[in-house]
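Summary for the steering committee. The consortium agreed at its last meeting that each partner would contribute one worked example illustrating the joint modelling workflow. Our contribution is presented below. We chose a case with several input lines so that the handling of multiple components could be demonstrated. No manual editing was applied between input and output; the record is shown as generated.
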Amino acid sequence: VIPTSPPRRSPNILITGTPGTGKTTTSEMVALAAGLEKVTVGDLVKERSLHDGYNEDFDTYWLNEDKVVDEMESMMAAGGICVDFHTCGFFPERWFDLVVVLRADTKNVYDRLEGRGYKANKINENVESEIMQVVLDEALESYQEDVMLVLDSNTVDDMETNVEKIAVFVERFREEHQH
Ligand code: ADP
Ligand code: MN
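What follows is the complete predicted structure of the assembly.
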């Protein structure tokens, strides 16, 4: 049985992409510009222990996808959430009204992750993943193309344009879902 919940008046948006493509920065700006609540899944995983321990090799937690979905279900039902995470295939498709995939050039991903102090193997894995468009393919397999936006995130100009596009989507959605 699929639980029925009242339709959302405010959209849920997923911002995904390889680490370093600008998800967190973009989500913060979207949340401010469009009046959404930002959920950085990586922080939630740490704060609420939604993981199965620590992966020393990659300085990251082993994600427990079921725990993450259970934890987020009630907030997503309310709507108006901007979710920021680097993997996207395990979220229920019905959660999102818009799925944004951010893309960045290899050099930008490299420089941003190096600037964050990531270990070489972690930088290389993410750079390769961006080149192989792993996150984009995962999104294409998991969501309908008509809810997806694939956006370049190389420059500050790109970021501003992206935030504006997403804010316009939010406005329209609210207008169409007033009643
Ligand atoms: P993610 O959350 O995808 O790992 P962040 O939002 O943390 O990425 O961005 C990583 C770094 O790159 C930050 O220092 C941010 O300011 C910078 N950055 C992100 N997107 C852009 C962009 N489009 N233009 C310039 N700098 C960016
Ligand atoms: Mn981030």
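The helical segments are 23-34, 41-47, 65-78, 106-115, 120-131, 134-142, 156-176. The mean pLDDT is 96.
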